Amino acid sequence: MIFNIPFIAVTALVLIGLYTVIFRRNLIKMVIGITIIQSGVNLFLITLGYRENSVAPIFTSLPPGTIVPEGMSFPVPQALTLTSIVIGVAVLALMLSLIIHIYRHYGTLDSKEIGGNEE
Amino acid sequence: MNIIDFLLQHSPALIVAIPLLGAFLTPLISRINNKARNIFVILILGLTTSIVFLLANDVFAGNIHTYVFGSQDLALPIVRILFEVDAMSAFMAIIGSILALVAVIYSWAFIKENTGLDKFYTLILLTTAGMFGMVLTGDMFNLFVFLEITSIASCALIAFWTNKGKSVEAGFKYIVISSIGALFLLFAIALLYGQYNALNIATLANAIQFSFLDKIALVLLIAAFAMKAGIVPMHMWLPDAYSKAPASVTIVLVGATQASLYGVFRVCFTLYGNTINLSPASIGWIIVLLGLITMLLGVAMALIQSDFKRLIAFSAVAEIGFMFLGIGAGLTVLGNAEMMAAIGIPAMSGGVFHIMNDALDIGLLFLVAGAIYYATRETSLDKLGGLARNMKYTTVFFIIGLFAVSGIPPMNGFASKLLIYESTFQLNPILSIVAILSSIMLLAVFVKVFHSVFLGPSLPKFKEVKEVPKSMLIAMGIIASIIIVFGLFPELIINNIVEPAVSALVNYGDYIREVIPTFTGGI
């Protein structure tokens, strides 16, 4: 059952991420949780496109003796993952910049204490 | 080929491309001066709106438009992105374009004193472009990308007043919810892609088997879109975001929320349309139940609020429940032609019509709340009072919004709510009783607001308050006049705009056949 390991890892990553977002009170840790979920989803996409014993789908640098296209892993999920990573970086930057502003206003990152005192 | 045909042929691409290009030109134009920038943004959105109407006019006549980016050879899988516009997409695009245009006209005076306005307008145009992309696209992954564009841009807009801690906090809540929602969506897309090796909605709908993995994907998709649309268990970000953002941003946000609602409908009716026949009732009833809870909880929370904008935000939550009720009632009888004609079509017409009515009513109320904030720098109901003496036009607009949102006859809210009451009563009387109850409570909520903000003795601290500037009055006037026209001639709107959108949802086969000509399902 060696090939199910990536899927188990995906489930574990998504659940750990969700746990972190829901139960951690520190905003930075919540952001870390979201990035963990994102890594889980990206890993899932990559795993979907993998064929056993396949090589990277780059036509110009195939090792000799590769069967085209069966010997290459599937390129579309990799393109999707790249897009998803780029979006993820933008979201991460935005979240961290918001956290900086929140810290300036409230002087704390504990989600229970934020918003209690007006402005 | 004349220019109109050319525009029509490329309109699905242009509707997204023009605001997108405009967004990145805006900082350059604002080097000239602020007035030029405002005029430029209004022109860009005016141009987009006219192209939307041109496209919608053709789509409502019965043609589904497809626009292919990439390989034209349809035999090759996934080497293209497809935009597919049917009547439902065009309907949502009309709502989005009206709201965005009104928002920029309103912003002219409302947000004049702030700094960083070039970025503000860039973000408004980006949100609008993302919203159009979401409703026009025919590709699941593309839907995810546009959803993220909308989320990122609108999150930055919610936190636009960074000098207020509450705004930044609301923005953070929004980005956390929407990024988790988007990741669920991506996970569901990966599940579907892994099974059917396709990302196109029509291709997927043709191939879908309703296996166990598909059921998981359906749950994830509905959860993700419902999170973004503010359905009750996931609604906690919405009152914060709506009430802490500038009023002209809120009205764009309403449009973005509606686009997520469109996602729910597209998934339920088109993507899973062919398989939902296997178990239509259960999924429909879940959506109806979510709608009922949303309605009741929304109005109950609205009743106890003391902040003007937060109160309107909770009634916006309640209004979303009405749409879910109408569309869900239609979904329960999907596949049964007789019941569909008797109950489903009227219920869904009510639900779809209410999407537009809600956008206009809630939009108008938020603009009025923004106008009051602009004039008095105050949103607490306890501190406001007697403003009808100083702001007579705003008062009139508020009364129009009040009647419309609570479904009082001469306004548009009545037309759509009556359709929902009548049809859901035949399905189960309790549904319409809950709906009418929520409507009455909404009236109670807004009568309370009307009394405490506009009536009563004139307060000494508001002696100097004047009517708001012209651009804000024009923006409110546009929405108010649309509300009155829709209220006086509901038949015209229902026959020409709403019916095509409903039949596009119900006859999902046409949408799929546009890409897969051999598809045989659908009514």
What can you tell me about this protein's structure?
The complex is a heterodimer of chains A (119) and B (523). With 119 residues, chain A is mainly α. Chain A has one domain (2-54, 67-106): Orthogonal Bundle (Helix Hairpins), CATH 1.10.287.3510. Chain A has 3 helices and no strands. In chain A, helix 1 (5-23) runs antiparallel to helix 2 and helix 2 packs antiparallel against helix 3. The longest helix of chain A has 32 residues, at 75-106. Chain A is elongated and about 60 Å long. Chain A starts with a helix and ends in a 13-residue tail after the last helix. The model of chain A has no long low-confidence stretch (mean pLDDT 86). With 523 residues, chain B is mainly α. Chain B has a domain at 279-488. In chain B, 76% of the residues lie in helices and 2% in strands. Chain B contains 20 helices and 2 strands. Chain B has helices at residues 3-29, 34-60, 87-110, 117-136, 140-158, 165-196, 201-207, 212-229, 237-244, 247-271, 273-276, 280-303, 308-332, 337-376, 392-405, 412-427, 429-454, 470-488, 490-506, 508-513; strands at residues 65-70, 80-85. In chain B, helix 2 packs antiparallel against helix 3 (87-110), helix 5 (140-158) runs antiparallel to helix 6 and helix 13 packs antiparallel against helix 14 (337-376). The radius of gyration of chain B is 22 Å and the shape is globular. The two termini of chain B are 36 Å apart. The model of chain B has no long low-confidence stretch (mean pLDDT 88).
